[in-house]
Design goal:
- The protein is α+β, with helices and mostly antiparallel strands.
- It has a domain of 84 residues: SH3 type barrels (Roll), CATH 2.30.30.40.
- The strands form two sheets. Strands 1, 2, 5, 6, 7 and 8 form a six-stranded antiparallel β-sheet that branches.
- The chain starts with a strand and ends with a helix.
- This is SH3b domain-containing protein.
Length: 163
Amino acid sequence: MISAPLPLLAKEASLGKPSRLYTEPFKDAAVIATLSATSTVKVLERKGGWSRIQHQQSEGWIRTLDLRFGKSAEGSVVADTFGLATGRAGSGNVVATTGIRGLDEEDLKSANFSAEQISLAESYRIDASVAESAAARAGLQSTTVEYFEDITNATPAARRHDR
């Protein structure tokens, strides 16, 4: 998890869309409020893909991807740092991004079985002959890739040899 101290964060941000303010940094936490897309917030802390923010008298957690750190962050440490790093200092075009990969522990804990979603995923499946025909029309050639041998229980010498 990424956690950054307050001085490294933009003091203010705006929302790019209506967003829910949660009591905790989890999708299944209680919702405190729904903020409008025109809301301006103060970022207090970041943790993974979540930011703890203050909006008027409310404080809670919001998905960091819902925040926009543009002109409202000008003059902050983040804006100045990004400006220097990107060569956009003073241009007003500073952009901050957040990358989040995969599923975290909370996503897995809150996952529920959905027969409807399984059916939807299966509806995208095509037969091998259809895939081969499409690949041939695109000029692609078939390649066989051998599976790697499982060396988790191999001796250290065998592991070095296989690399």
